[in-house]
Amino acid sequence: MRMWWIATVLFVGFSSSSIAAEQDYRLCTVGGYFSGTHDKFLSGLAAHIAEKKKIFGNPICNAAWENAFRIGEKLYKTGRVQDQAEGEIIHQAAAFSSKVYDAISARIDF
Fold it and tell me: What is the pTM for the complete model shown?
């Protein structure tokens, strides 16, 4: 039931032309995931970028954040991925993390 509700919210949100791009909501997903894994740096960075894009705190972002938080929390505790949807969120989080660390390391002259 919960997944149906989230899918409905996402469908309504993405079908509106005034709503942010799907890629913007990935920030909410990765931020929630990192929040669930207790990574304050990456979670805070994703929230900061989402806030700048003016999507942080809207219903679609909140739903994505909460869903990904549960997945991150579960993975933090068990270390296991249970289905393809969880794997996709973890993949998005890993891509975000890689981009952040690539950007930081490119500026370090060490």
Answer: 0.77
